[in-house]
């Protein structure tokens, strides 16, 4: 099943994909839908067809957006680090997210880098969950680009200030339920800059898979429906290039996960 | 002016302190009050007296709780680091906060440390604010204890997972408006464990003061009424003792800021 928040003539709407296109769900967006319903209910709750509907940011109001760094063996090596015994975690905000076809507006002069990622969407409350419970709490998967302001990320020991710029992390276009996609078996995560492939990784090589990440996070904080966990990025980021290469004004950066779709963002610098 | 969220016989309530005690404000808590009103309006909006009212967690629903580490020169030295050119920032959640007279329940075996701090409460939306605008956006100040799970904090490069345990950061008891307290001129921040003073610092020694922190954060993300920024902790944390000393089951840890008040928490370990 594919779920989304879509733009319609009468405003945004949670929606489920059927053979003939998007159908309305009883909520203004997928954050609100997941707060009130399970994904399993979506088929029975599907209403009118929504011709011309276009996916927006699927989850506009997650209470928590938690990211895992250093989770693909090749990216870890590229950053000059050792394989971790625990996930490296940091936070973003709902404000950090932006839709699947975005212009990312940033001040001129920042070192803006790309990080294509598989993102996990939480479907039920979990706290102190084991692996099995955490896996069962996954509502679905979507695509993220953890656009990172490297100069700010590296100003101090804590990455947060380079990771939480408003409207800088594209997410979407749809949330695909676990019956249709299995990241443990493996899906390809890729990133292209102006059409040139820069990243390619497979989620089967994740050090910590989706269920492991949700279980780990739930040890210290509750996760709720609509919360999002980014699973980390494969090798090939701009910071790892020789010399380091960052995004320029007008650059088009696309992140894709097989079985889900792709998200595109254009970088716009202002003075 | 002193503002709080108080417990009353008819449930929690935003309140303002007058000579004869707490008076009701037109909101269920201070988060809701600040979302709808300014602190300057509180005097005119004050309603019935609330006899027997007791301060609770003043801000139960901040969208952002952002913390500054390494901001007192003596604490920076104690941790073996150099004076920073930029604030070191990390995130907590509304879920991380707990009231001013709390039991903090954690699993047995964690290295639980104390960090008494001055916390700044945001009063108006700011983004890309300069120092003056950021200073004018301060609704008031309160006390925080950035209780830190050091073993988790130090598992990876990112501190977040040791800083965001649910209901582990006491905050309160009241929010004091800037006309009554001036942290730039200096207020004392202290921490006592079972009555023994462990930390004492003065906010006049902060590397980045409240207005500077709000302005800096607003460069990358919007701050809204009711958001909270913790300004860092002075020297004297348990991790800096020889040998490192952490909190035990039943320990009482108190954080105090002169001119605001004190918050107390009892540590309760479970198996």
UniProtKB/TrEMBL annotation, chains A, B:
Origin species: Nocardioides terrae
Protein name, entry field: Acylpyruvate hydrolase
InterPro entries named in the record: FAH (IPR051121), Fumarylacetoacetase-like_C (IPR011234), Fumarylacetoacetase_C_sf (IPR036663)
Any one of the GO BP annotations: carboxylic acid metabolic process
Positions of the Fumarylacetoacetase-like C-terminal domain: 64-267
Family: Belongs to the FAH family.
Highest taxon above the source species: Bacteria
Pfam families: FAA_hydrolase
Record key words, sorted: Hydrolase, Metal-binding, Pyruvate
């Amino acid at each position: 099943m594919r779920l989304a928040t879509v733009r319609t003539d009468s405003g945004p709407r949670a929606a489920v994909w059927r053979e003939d296109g998007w159908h309305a769900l009883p909520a203004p967006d997928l954050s609100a839908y997941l707060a009130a319903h399970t994904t399993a209910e979506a088929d029975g709750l599907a209403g009118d067809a929504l011709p011309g509907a276009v996916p927006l940011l699927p989850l506009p109001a997650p209470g928590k957006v938690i990211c895992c760094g250093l989770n693909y063996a090749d990216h870890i090596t590229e950053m000059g680090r050792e394989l971790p015994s625990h996930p490296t975690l940091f936070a973003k905000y709902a404000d950090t997210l932006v839709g699947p076809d975005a212009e990312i507006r940033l001040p001129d002069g920042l070192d803006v880098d790309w990080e294509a990622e598989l993102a996990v969407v939480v479907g039920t409350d979990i706290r102190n969950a084991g692996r099995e419970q955490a896996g069962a709490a996954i509502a679905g998967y979507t695509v993220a680009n953890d656009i990172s302001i490297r100069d700010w990320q590296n100003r101090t020991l804590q990455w947060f200030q380079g990771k939480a710029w408003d409207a800088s992390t594209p997410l979407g276009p749809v949330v695909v339920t676990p019956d249709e996609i299995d990241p443990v078996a493996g899906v390809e995560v890729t990133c292209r800059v102006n059409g040139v492939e820069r990243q390619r990784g497979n989620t089967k090589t994740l050090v910590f898979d989706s269920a492991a990440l949700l279980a780990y996070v739930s040890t210290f904080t509750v996760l709720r429906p609509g919360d999002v966990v980014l699973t980390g990025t494969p090798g090939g980021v701009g910071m790892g290039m020789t010399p380091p290469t960052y995004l320029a004004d007008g650059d088009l950066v696309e992140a894709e996960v097989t079985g889900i779709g792709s998200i595109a963002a254009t970088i716009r610098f202002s003075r």
